[in-house]
Amino acid sequence: MIDPGLIRKDPERVRAGLKARNPRYLPALEELIALDGQQRAVIAKVDELRGQRNALSQQIGKAMAAKDVATADKLKAEVAAGKEKLAQLEAELAPLAEKTKQAAMGLPNVPHESAPVGASENDNKEIRRVGEPTLRDFKPLDHQTVGEKLGILDMAAASKLSGSRFALWKGAGARLMRAIAAFQLDRHAKRGYLEVLPPYLVRAEILEGTGQLPKFGDQLYKTNTDDAQEQLPLYLIPTAEVPLTNLVRESILAADALPLKMTAATPCFRQEAGSYGKDVRGLIRNHQFDKVELVWITEPEKSLEALEQLTKDAEAILTELGLPMRVIELCTGDMGFSARKTYDIEVWMPSESRYREISSCSDCGDFQARRMEARFKRDPKAAAQFVHTLNGSGVAVGRLFAAILENFQQKDGSVLIPQPLQPFFGGDRIARA
Predict the structure, then answer these.
(1) Which residues contact 350 (CB under 8 A, 6 or more apart)?
(2) Which residues are CB-neighbours of 164 under 8 A, at least 6 positions away?
(3) Is the domain of 300 the same as that of 361?
(4) Given 360, 375, 393, 406, which residue is catalytic?
(5) How many CA atoms lie within 13 A of 104 on its CB side?
């Protein structure tokens, strides 16, 4: 959630930031500004009436002590009238506060001033490339074809079980998926990340905390059980960012506990609403997929530095495996809802002769922390401040599986396993049976 103090103090900065994202957010911002003004006006009137009531109560006490019944009765009548007005205003305040909150929840984060201004992915900025695509004396096949020829990937069986945009791995394919996740967790643990295995179902307020709700409800899978006592319905997580980041929800951390770095390998579930016809083949855009996530909780002044390190930690996975990649900085119009600055890591896919996203690393500033009430203290006597949160794919397991099949396929149809991955996989190649 955008800092309401910033909106009041410097509305032009917020307008400029949201306009850089997309001008369509500006009417909603103006609505929020108007609602906030109305709410503060009602709060001021409530405070005024409460002050008057307290003052009148003191006068009544003095009148009664002086046995001035007429004055006391007059003052009591004024208190009664004020009480009625106060009740009316307090009744107005609750729905107005909720309306203001919902308006605020619908607005994305204000981009950091260093983020490139642009309208779409065409305006993203390439930062660096690492590694060179391998020259081949044969035409590389796409990962689905390679996997199906090897008998390790069965998209038809997945479709029979669950419909389109699902995948099924078997034999060496299932083992490779397990190895990829274990390899990443091992490397990230050695870099100081705390490994976590979180629940895959979470409450609605947990998704609100990281910005998936209310904005992206159509992308989520929701259970149809409705039980207020059990705080249901629950939602399947779209990313481990959701439960990991919310571990600091409604907390006040000590400064010496920061940065807090966590990693998790989980399945993720997304409806992919609006993606009809996009990447319908293979593992690039599925409803269920596995991902290793990285989350940082930091002090505000250190979050941009943390973003650089988080991105390097995700890059290191691809570098160690010898996969060509590039890092791009997303422009304001292409960033995610909660992000103020984002780097995407893209891996080379030989069958398409282009780079495809395999990780997205974002600094969210205090945007999520405000929703979650996640704060820290620099010392026990200091006022609590909001933490900054960061997250990144470290990296998507299925997309890494696809990249390995495409980049390490051989002319005879086999696939070499990168050396660092071999101890986790238990072999150096996958060949046709």
Answers:
(1) 133, 134, 136, 140, 406, 407, 409
(2) 280
(3) yes
(4) 360
(5) 24
- For residue 312, give both structure tokens: 């390097």
Q: Are residues 192 and 162 part of one domain?
A: yes
44 and 149 share a domain?
no
Q: Tell me if residue 191 is catalytic.
A: no
Is 270 annotated in the active site? yes
CA 146 vs CA 66, 117, 139, 181: distances in Å: 97, 40, 12, 21
The 10s digit of each residue's pLDDT in 93-149 is 889 999 999 999 999 999 999 999 999 999 999 999 999 999 899 999 999 999 999
Does a structural domain hold residue 114? no
In the chain, how many domains are there? 2
Question: Do 276 and 241 share a domain, yes or no?
Answer: yes
Catalytic residue among 15, 21, 371, 399: 399
Which residue ranges in the chain fall short of pLDDT 50? none
Is residue 80 located within the same domain as residue 141?
no
State whether 88 and 133 are in the same domain.
no
Give me the catalytic one of 92, 320, 357, 373.
357
Predicted local distance difference test score (pLDDT) of residue 430? 98
- Which residues fall within 8 angstroms of residue 29, CB to CB, at 6 or more apart? 7, 14, 15, 18, 107
Instruction: Establish if 10 belongs to a structural domain.
Output: yes
Which helix (DSSP H) or strand (DSSP E) does residue 111 occupy? none
Q: Could you tell me which residues come within 8 angstroms of residue 4 by beta carbon, excluding any fewer than 6 positions away?
A: 36, 104
Per-residue CA distances from 312 to 70, 315, 337 (Å): 79, 5, 22
Q: Any catalytic annotation for residue 162?
A: no
Q: Catalytic residue at 357?
A: yes
Please check whether residues 350 and 269 belong to one and the same domain. yes
Residue tagged 């409604």 (tokens) = 250
- Look up tokens 């609006």; give the residue: 274
Question: Tell me, what CATH number does 44's domain have?
Answer: 1.10.287.40
Taking CB atoms within 8 Å and a gap of at least 24, the contacts of 77-80 are: 79/53
Q: Give me the domain span that covers residue 29.
A: 4-105
Active site residue 356: no
Asked if 385 and 132 count as a contact pair (C-beta separation under 8 A), the reply is no
CA dist list (Å): 12 to 24, 32, 109, 333, 365: 16, 14, 15, 18, 19
